Amino acid sequence: MTEKNPNSFLNFVAALFLMGFLVFVLIELQSILLPLFIALIISLVFMPLYRFLNSKKIPSALSIVIIILIIILVSNVASIFIFTSMNSFSSEFPKYEQKVIYIFDNITKTLNISESEIQTFSNNFNIKSMLADGKLTATITNIFSGVTSLMGNYILILFYIIFILSEANSIKLRISRAFSEEKKITVTKTLNDIFKGVKDYISGKTLLSLSQAIVIGLILWICGVDFYFIWAFLFFITDFIPNVGSLIASVMVAIVMYLQFDNFMTPTIILVVLIVIQNLKGNIIEPKIFGAKLDLSPLLLLFSLIFWGYVWGIMGMILSVPIMSMIKITFMNIPATKPIAILMSNNADNIK
C-alpha cells in the first residue's frame, strides 16, 4: 500500500499541472479557440440542412455557399437591429441617470443624512459621481460587448464553418480506414451522439429562448416600456447562460421600469408577469422538451459557468452547456472515463 503512495502523489501533481496548462492554453489561445468552438456548434446546427441539400444532389460547395449566405443574412439583420437599438439606448439612457441622482438626493434629504455622511458614503461607493460621469450607461452598454465583440471574429468563424462542413462528408470514410471495426463503432457512435446532443440542445434552446423573448418583447411594448427590443434581445441572449442569465435580464429591466414609471404598481405587475413566464418555460416547458437528454448536474453547470466565464468571458458562459455536454458524451463512450461521465450526470438512473 505504501509503495503506491509516491506514484499516486506524482499522478496528482501531474494532473494539477496538466489542468493548469490547459487553462493557460484556453486563455492564451482564446482568439483562436473561441471562434472555433462557435463555428463547430453552428456547423452542428446546420449539418441537417447541409445533408438535406446533399441528398437533393446539390453539390457540396453550393450547399456550403447557401448555408454561409443564410448565416450572413441572419447575422446582418440581427446586427442592424442590435446596433440601432444600442444607439438609441446610449442616447436616451442618460435621462435615467439624472433621475437616479434626483432620487438619491431626495432620499438623503428625507433621511436627514448630513453632508459629511454623504461624503463618507460617496468615498466608499461613489454612486453620484458614477452616474454624473456616465459610467452607468457605459457599464450597461458593456454587457453587450461579449456578443458584439464576435463581429471582430466574424470572418474567422465563417472560414471555420466552411472547412468544418467541407470535411463532413469524408469523415466517415477516414474513420473506417483509421480504426479497427470495434473502435470504428465507438468513434462513430461518439461523434453521432455529440452531433445529436448539441444539435438538439441548440435548436431546442434557441426556439424556446426566441419564443420567450418575443412574448416578453410584446408585453414590454404593449406596456410602453422603453427599449423593449433591447430587453427582448437581452432575455434571448442571457437565457443561454444557465442559472443566472434570466436573473441578470430581469434585474436590468426592473431597474429601468422603476425609473421610467412614476408609480410602483405598474413595473411590479410587469415584473411579476415576466417572472411567471420565465418559470413556466424553465420549470415546465423546457424539462418536457429536453427531458433526460441534457442530464447535467446543476452543481456542475454552476461550476462550468464560472470556469468558462473566467476563461472566455460572456461567450464562455453561453457556450458552457454545449461544451460540457460534448465532454460528457465523449466520456460516456470511453470505458476509462465513463465513471466521470456518471459523476457529471444529474440522474445516474438514466445511464446504461
Rg, rounded, reads 25 Å
Q: State the total count of DSSP E strands.
A: 0
Taken in chain order, the helices and strands follow as HHHHHHHHHHHHHHHH
Distance between termini? 33 Å
Quick one: biggest sheet? none
Task: Give a description of the structure.
The mean pLDDT is 79. The chain has a domain at 32-169. Helices cover 82% and strands 0% of the residues. With 352 residues, it is an all-alpha fold. It contains 16 helices and no strands.
How does the SSE layout of this entry go?
Layout lengths: L3 H25 L1 H26 L4 H33 L1 H17 L4 H10 L2 H6 L2 H8 L2 H4 L5 H15 L2 H8 L2 H42 L5 H11 L6 H16 L4 H26 L7 H35 L5 H7 L8
Give the gist of this structure.
The chain has a domain at 32-169. It is 82% helix and 0% strand. The protein is built from 16 helices and no strands.
What descriptive keywords fit this protein?
352 residues, mainly alpha
